[in-house]
Amino acid sequence: MVDKRIPLYEGACQQGAPVNYDLLEPSATTTGVVFASPHSGRAYPANMRKTTVLDELALRSSEDAYVDRLIADAPLLGAPLLLARTPRAFVDLNRSPDELDPAVIEGVRRVIHNPRVTSGLGVIPRVVANGRAIYRGKIPLSEARRRIDDHWHPYHAALRALLQRQRAAFGIAVLVDCHSMPHEAIEGMSSGRGPVPDVVLGDRFGAAADAGIVDRIEAAFTAEGLRVARNAPFAGAFIAQRYGRPTQGTHVVQIEIDRALYMDEARVTPLPRFDELRGLMRRVMSDIVDIARPELPLAAE
Fold first, then answer.
1. For residues 250 and 224, what is the distance between their CA atoms, to the nearest angstrom?
2. Residue 80: left (phi > 0), alpha (psi -120 to 50), or beta?
3. Quick one: average pLDDT of 262-280?
4. Helix, strand, or coil here: 24?
């Protein structure tokens, strides 16, 4: 049985703002592991639909589409699951709130070179996949701040509270931050060196998680026959950088899954084998939750 409790963070609701995430709690939390998907949201606000120059299919190209469904069984395994409703093209929850792009937001001063902002992928994205512009012009700074207040801050407040709760209860918190990657992003990785990876694990080169934890996660995927790479081409972004504190008992591992394994990228629709991959992910998650599950007491003799 799974309880759905929204929200963990109540500040936004008290001010009348919408709740833009789902927190799915198990009936009994038995592990310090947390699963999350910050980029699979698809609740596009009406005002965005009116201002974007893109059609719906193009707008959705930046989503980690259906990752939330791939990991939907996490609460059945005893782990909480945090899912963003906010679309990445509207607010990118895996960016710092001060990564503001002067090319898309009015009144923003140019800042020190930031490659994410320069490429149009700040906290308020300027482009979607293949560099396609989202808007014809700029949006007001007040609108950017409203989005961050109503969407970014509630999600991160919920995430912080969840990790603090897990660490207090289990002595360790392990955030498995789940994403998907365009197949074209890894196609050029082989260069004659063999097959491209199916999964890329990012721990910011050891700064965000203990190596033993990453080893266990890699082993869970390889046991299912998937090819795994680490930190290339994705080492982890803001969430891994901000919350990964291995010496303090909080670990973050970013997981990138090749979209070609489960979806038609051009149509943004699941492939017939989607349920097969979801079953695989359930087995992988079942292994992962054991990383931060306390030892069961010995039966009385």
1. 27
2. beta
3. 97
4. strand
**DSSP3 helix / strand / coil % (the chain, rounded to 5):** 35, 20, 45
Separation of alpha carbons 3 and 219, rounded Å: 30
Q: What is the pTM of this model?
A: 0.90
Kindly report, residue by residue over 69-83, the tens digit of the pLDDT: 999 999 999 999 999
Q: Are 237 and 254 in contact (CB under 8 A)?
A: yes
What are 84's strand-pairing partners?
Answer: 21
Q: Which residue has the tokens 């005002």?
A: 47
Amino acid at 256: E
Give the CATH superfamily of 2-90+149-292.
Zn-dependent exopeptidases (3.40.630.40)
DSSP at 8: S
Contact assessment for residue 13 and residue 263, using Cβ atoms and an 8 Å cutoff:
no
Write the DSSP symbol of residue 119: T
Rounded CA-CA distance 158/22 in Å is 10
Distance between CA 29 and CA 21 in Å, rounded? 19
- Whether residue 100 is predicted with pLDDT greater than 80 in this model: the reply is yes
Rg (CA), the chain: 19
